[in-house]
Fold these 2 entries.
Entry 1:
Amino acid sequence: MKKTIYDYTLSELQDSIKPSFRAKQIYNWIYKKYVTSYDDMKNIPKDLKADLIENYPIDICKIIAIEESSDGTKKYLFQYNDGKTAEAVLLLMKEKQKDEDGNIIKSEKYTFCVSSQVGCKVGCTFCLTAKGGFVRNLTPGEIATQISYLKKDNNIAENKAVNIVYMGMGEPLDNFDNVVKAIRIISDLDGLAISTRRQTISTSGLSTKIAKLGKLDLGVQLAISLHAVDDELRSELIPMNKAYNIQSIIDAVREFPIDARKKVMFEYLVIKDQNDDIKSADKLVKLLNGIDAKVNLIFFNPFPGTTYERPSKNSMIRFQDYLLSKKLMCTIRESKGIDISAACGQLKEKEQDGDS
Ligand code: SAH
Ligand code: SF4
């Protein structure tokens, strides 16, 4: 992909755009004011604009569809310059906060679920994204603009704190360099200024890359898509488990630098009659022993053609109760946006007219 202005960190732009203070102004325009055209950058001189248009294209994507769920979840379909598409989801939650007088007020809390690749190589048997195979990595700018475009479309103020989860399409650690660069761009105080502590990387468990990410000490949160407690079942669900088994993932997590106030999240996709029994719950407790962990149980979301089934609510609660009784923190993820196929594992590339 040809690079766009969004693909550069601020310091890279400061090195190449002269005078360098202009770089900060441009960053402000694109990431704080969500401007998508050089014409709208009022304090940038004309001759510089001409140079920017030539060397730093600003056209990166178009939003080609927006679907809104009855629960407020919105799913956006982005199309990039090569015609490929990826989805990003905006999740809305009410957050209780106290005002200056100590009264409880409810405010909106926004979480952006972003894609890191078009398709995915990992091939999990329960995931719809995997069905279309791998198409390509998203560039840092294609990741960052999922956020700036959604903020613009929803009139979200530049200084409103939002959370980012890399849980859309793709395996973020399989697109390591671009995702790390996106994190740096997204957290820049002169840009979107979203603290790395509010950014969660969800991975199917590429242990060597977890270790590599840990060494960078970016301050990001980690979520591990564990889903199974023995390698046999996990390899069936996540074929890549043959290369990176459960123990290797646990070892990598133990080394990962985690903010003292936070925990490592373990996502556990619950599939009826596969991994919803108490024996598995007990194994999970033992496996996570000594890790500051939080388990998030996810209902399997079925899709046409799958043989896996959604577990009953009762079995989810039984599983959760068992973990809680062993003092392991555990929540059940609310599935949001099911009616618009925006829920976990329901994102996939859309076939475009005329696209082969
Ligand atoms: N590739 C990364 C991040 C994207 S997937 C990962 O696997 O962690 C985001 C989450 O959606 C993962 O926890 C994944 O296991 C979950 N998921 C995938 N398919 C699902 C389905 N059919 N139902 C519910 N959750 C699913
Ligand atoms: Fe890829 Fe994650 Fe889907 Fe597995 S669950 S195929 S890693 S996107």
Note: DSSP finds eleven helices and twelve strands in the chain.
Entry 2:
Amino acid sequence: MDCLFCKISNKEIPSTVVYETDDVIAFNDITPQAPVHIVIIPKHHISSPADITAENCDIAGKMFLAASEIAKKLNLEKGFRIVSNCGEDGGQTVQHLHLHLLAQRSLAWPPG
Ligand code: AMP
Ligand code: ZN
């Protein structure tokens, strides 16, 4: 499958990996929107949050666990934001489920 994040997960495309388990991998975003901007993905391809089902939803917990563990490792006690863009209106550009973990700057709400 011609999927950028599957290729990053398979190490066919290099990235700066900051966290990895059997199921999840996280790496620095190539176009960071904050001093800390990490992308957290399942290794197994799921296209978007809209494709989470009763059968595959355990991975969502593992992705949030990754975010929590990364936040502890990076001492993000001041806070952080987790975002998952979905579909055209949600601004999703890579069709492989991911969380953005953003930190170390003040983030506006609502995001606009
Ligand atoms: P989204 O727009 O929510 O689908 O997020 C996709 C993210 O992937 C964007 O923030 C991009 O900057 C990031 N991205 C695209 N290509 C790469 C890459 N080769 N390595 C790391 N991050 C990437
Ligand atoms: Zn993929």
Note: The chain has a mean pLDDT of 97.
